[in-house]
Known about the structure:
The chain is α/β, with parallel strands linked by helices. Helices cover 47% and strands 17% of the residues. Helix 3 packs across helix 4 (103-112) and helix 7 runs parallel beside helix 9 (234-243).
Amino acid sequence: MKSKKLLAVLTVLVLFLIVSFFTEKNEEVKEDRPTVGVLQFVSHPALDEIYRGIQDGLKESGYKDGENMTIVFQNGQADQSKLSTMSQQLIDKQSDVLIGIATPAAQALANSTSKLPIVLGAITDPVSAGLVESNEKPGRNITGVSDKSPVEAQFDLAVKLLPKAASVGILYSSAEENSKYQAAEAEKAAKALGLTVKSYVVPSSNEIAQTVQVMSSEVDVIYIPTDNTIANAMQTVVNEADKTKTPIIPSVDTMVEEGGLATVGINQYELGIQTGKMAADILSGKSDPATTPIYTFETGDIIINEAQAKKLGITVPEDILSEAKLVGTGSD
Ligand code: TRP
């Protein structure tokens, strides 16, 4: 009897030891493999391209998801409370590096940790968003890529394509810090070229269709900064503006593709590649966020939607066409 009991106790003990041995092993494996936590603000073609670039940028630097690194991806669906819970989840999942795609996502991450390194994925102006002390010396746990777009070049192109235009309406959302900054830049650039400027600020995506109807009857051109709320509703904007044949100058390639007329823009995929590489350098210990300057792009490509130009009755001068990257097939 006694020895049977002893045997049972021993068996339990041995089983316990085996189980704990394996669990410990697993933890060790997880420690070897770094985790990259990615928080994307919302889905729209530009941010989706940036995320695709991030994955490839990490890969080019030797970090392959599922092989020697794990990506945990979350999409906040433009919801502030989701963004903060997801930030916390990414931290709880023991991310070694966090990446925020678009300003509201980066701000949510920054509010959740001042220790873990955060890489900014295409943030218009990290300083005015309160994310870094300066672009040259970020100073804290945050560095990354800015997608500040070449606003002056965009307006130079706009007046070349639309020499008769006298007024421009700037469309953006009041909820986004990034857009306020760029809208102010746009106003300066447009005024310098002699255009009259009016801002149309929407509180949420619900007001976009009606606002674009009003704009289309009041201004000659619609300008859109890198605003996530508007980018997410680009189809609506194009549908409404098309009714009065009002041309749209957005600030990125993906929005031209969806029915904008033209822009000078930074390739969204390239923004992602650069973000992924910066995250890889932090993972491998090559760089420290506090002393790594924010990466900015000097110039952009000329992007034209020729089908949309035809639809609006606009002839694109040959010299511009020959330099441009052509995208899109029109908005219908
Ligand atoms: N710069 C934007 C931000 O800071 C994010 C962004 C990147 C974006 N590319 C875009 C927004 C294209 C609209 C369209 O939030």
